[in-house]
Amino acid sequence: MTFVAATGRAFLVLLEATGALAIFTASALSHSVRPPFYPRLILRQMVDIGYYSLPVVGLTALFTGMVLALQSYTGFARFQAEGAIATVVVLSVTRELGPVLGGLMVAGRIGAAMAAEIGTMRVTEQVDALTTLSTNPFKYLVAPRLIAGLTMLPLLVLVADVIGVFGGFLIGVYRLDFNPASYISRTWEYLEAVDVISGLVKAAVFGFLIALMGCYHGYRSRGGAQGVGTATTNSVVSASVLILVTNYLITGIFFSTK
Known about the structure:
Blueprint: H1 2-33, H2 39-51, H3 54-76, H4 85-123, H5 126-132, H6 137-174, H7 180-189, H8 193-219, H9 224-254
């Protein structure tokens, strides 16, 4: 009976957490589409998420494209299929590696920052002070971050796609001695609009999830500095797991096999 009781308690805790997240998400979405809005706060979050995340996302995309070209060459050379390297690089970067790695890097940087900032405001009662001043915490703290995450991550991923493909081009031309015109022709030959669009859709969903997890765990943090640290860790872990899960689901929707 002890095992059954423990299983029941764990299941109830899971249901409680799921319900709390669902209510938080519904409230956040509702406040994100209804006035009043705070354009200055939204712009500030856009700069924090987009502009300040560009160096780390761009550097990750550059070396990912370079490594992908090298690894593809070592594998394809065994089957005399070196000509497919450009196609593999561009499809891998635009479909998967660009949005997934970009999302994970932003989750580690922005998700943790959101949880720490809102969590500190929660434990120091600044969130309660906003309510006292007739300011809705969801509109002031959560909605700007959700809007910024939803709009800026696709732009980040689009830039990351270009940088990643350029990294593969550098390795292909200057390390593997490919002809530049031939490499570019191979890059464009099999690239379709759905490849880029699917990556941008993933990026928008990932941006929303990152901002949602950061705000959710920060808003519900308790227990002083230790609670803020726990909320920060939980936000990064949960956002990363959701990115990987939703990546599979969206890929299944766009590229399902019949």
